[in-house]
Amino acid sequence: MPGPAQPTEEATALAAAIAEVLRDGDRQVAVAESLTSGTVASHLGAAEGASAWFAGGVVAYASEVKFKVLDVDPGPVVSARCAEQMARGVAGLTAAHVGVSATGVGGPDPEEGKPAGTVFIAVSTRDGEEVAEHHFDGDPAEVVQAATVQALRMLLTTIRR
Length: 161
Prior knowledge:
It holds the Pfam family CinA. By secondary structure, the chain is an alpha/beta fold. The chain starts with 8 loop residues before the first helix and ends with a helix. Strands 2-1-3-4-5 form a five-stranded mixed beta sheet, sandwiched between helices. 45% of the residues are buried. The chain has one domain: Maf protein. It has six helices and five strands; from the N terminus they run αβααβααβββα.
């Protein structure tokens, strides 16, 4: 199995589909990542034509980075509210049309009263935010991989609308 920073077949295919939808460059995407530590951005950046539609991203692993850089309200960071604010914050920071974020608990131990594998993924557009809570099984690397794939899926679904 690939490590968390290694491309997976499914994630690579999702990034290619995202690139196809955004190929004309009329919309830009940005990412804010905590739990996934840049893996979503690395898949998007490796996709064809990314320079036309990928604005960039912020790896905000530490809570203080979320608060100071992404304008997340201080408080729990393993939450839907945090994921929504991260996605909105990175879109605003980069002037992107769409922001996607991932925050959660990779494990092996719980955090903020949430069990390992709890992940919140959000997508922000100029029309608002959508957030989903997920519970993934596996070790931290497997949780990161599953969260990366799910974030790319959610992004693709949003941009296809």
